[in-house]
Automatic annotation (TrEMBL):
<dbReference type="InterPro" id="IPR011004">
    <property type="entry name" value="Trimer_LpxA-like_sf"/>
</dbReference>
<dbReference type="InterPro" id="IPR045304">
    <property type="entry name" value="LbH_SAT"/>
</dbReference>
<keyword id="KW-0028">Amino-acid biosynthesis</keyword>
<keyword id="KW-0808">Transferase</keyword>
<protein>
    <recommendedName>
        <fullName>Serine acetyltransferase</fullName>
        <ecNumber>2.3.1.30</ecNumber>
    </recommendedName>
</protein>
<comment type="similarity">
    <text>Belongs to the transferase hexapeptide repeat family.</text>
</comment>
<dbReference type="Pfam" id="PF06426">
    <property type="entry name" value="SATase_N"/>
</dbReference>
<dbReference type="GO" id="GO:0009001">
    <property type="term" value="F:serine O-acetyltransferase activity"/>
</dbReference>
<feature type="domain" description="Serine acetyltransferase N-terminal">
    <location>
        <begin position="14"/>
        <end position="118"/>
    </location>
</feature>
<keyword id="KW-0677">Repeat</keyword>
<dbReference type="InterPro" id="IPR001451">
    <property type="entry name" value="Hexapep"/>
</dbReference>
<dbReference type="Pfam" id="PF00132">
    <property type="entry name" value="Hexapep"/>
</dbReference>
<comment type="pathway">
    <text>Amino-acid biosynthesis; L-cysteine biosynthesis; L-cysteine from L-serine: step 1/2.</text>
</comment>
<dbReference type="InterPro" id="IPR005881">
    <property type="entry name" value="Ser_O-AcTrfase"/>
</dbReference>
<keyword id="KW-0012">Acyltransferase</keyword>
<dbReference type="InterPro" id="IPR010493">
    <property type="entry name" value="Ser_AcTrfase_N"/>
</dbReference>
<dbReference type="InterPro" id="IPR018357">
    <property type="entry name" value="Hexapep_transf_CS"/>
</dbReference>
Length: 269
């Protein structure tokens, strides 16, 4: 099939790969044919598939699937960065999550990926001044996926959130490119203070399960935060922190912790 569409594959290899995997999945499991066709193969582009998934998952008695689909279509058509970030996120999940064996899986099955893509539409609403609607999207994402990302937060490309249960990211948080985090991570404040009060996470950072990063602090590029840590102070680049409160215990151990996903702490680090 790839030989029939070489131009399409060269322009949008991620979407082409997803569609090829979708056709193979239908052949392997015909009972999922309707689900896969409606979620992937019915759509001419990844943007249209993302809009469909957004509207299907977040629809409720309070807001219809049709209205949500119109919102998502407008966001994805107006801001091409949303679709490009979605592709980078899909590749990130495939590359870093050992449970992900196909590009098809995140868009159909992984709530972490789907929650981040819904956040991106909510962030677009926030940035265009439609803040009540952005709050509605945040509410529904939290209810449906168990992921609470404030629409005002700024999140880069190539994000992988594994399992994604109980993720909290506050309003003034910034997350760089190629960041990986596991379940129950909080990027939060430290009290009732207003203004810029949430963490700034650099590029290539890996945040372990259950870690809490609190306050307007900076986590340097390519650092590791060990599972269960409580980080209250700045973290230098290319370092590993662990503990409650977290302290620097050594170097990161590799050039790109978020890509390596190595969560072990060697005695000789």
């Amino acid at each position: 099939m790839a030989q029939r569409n070489p131009k399409v594959a060269s322009v949008d290899p991620v979407w082409t790969h997803i569609c090829e995997e979708a056709r193979a999945a239908v052949r392997d499991e015909p009972l999922l044919g309707g689900f896969i066709h409606s979620g992937v193969l019915h759509h001419p582009s990844m943007e249209r598939a993302l809009a469909y998934r957004f509207s299907l998952k977040l629809a409720s008695g309070e807001m219809s699937e049709q209205v949500l689909r119109e919102i998502a279509d407008e966001a994805l058509a107006t801001d091409p960065e949303i679709g490009q970030a979605a592709r980078a996120d899909c590749v990130a999940v495939y590359d870093r999550d050992p449970a992900c064996h196909r590009f098809l899986q995140p868009i159909l099955f992984f709530k972490g990926y789907q929650a981040v893509q819904a956040y991106r539409i909510g962030h677009w609403l926030w940035m265009t001044g439609r803040r009540d609607l952005a709050y509605f999207v945040q509410m529904r994402v939290s209810e449906v996926f168990g992921v609470d990302i404030h629409p005002g937060a700024r999140i880069g490309r190539g994000i992988m959130i594994d399992h994604a249960h109980s993720i909290v990211i506050g309003e003034t948080a910034v997350v760089g490119d190629n960041v990986s985090m596991l379940h129950s991570v909080t990027l939060g404040g430290t009290g009732k203070e207003d203004g810029d009060r949430h963490p700034k996470i650099g590029n290539g950072v890996m945040i372990g399960a259950g870690a809490k990063v609190l306050g307007n602090i900076r986590v340097g590029d390519c650092s590791r935060i060990a599972a269960g840590s409580v980080v209250l102070h700045d973290v230098p680049e290319c370092s590993t922190v662990a503990g409650v409160p977290a302290k620097v215990i050594g170097q990161a151990g590799c050039a790109q912790p978020a890509l390596a996903m190595d969560q072990l702490i060697d005695d000789g680090i």
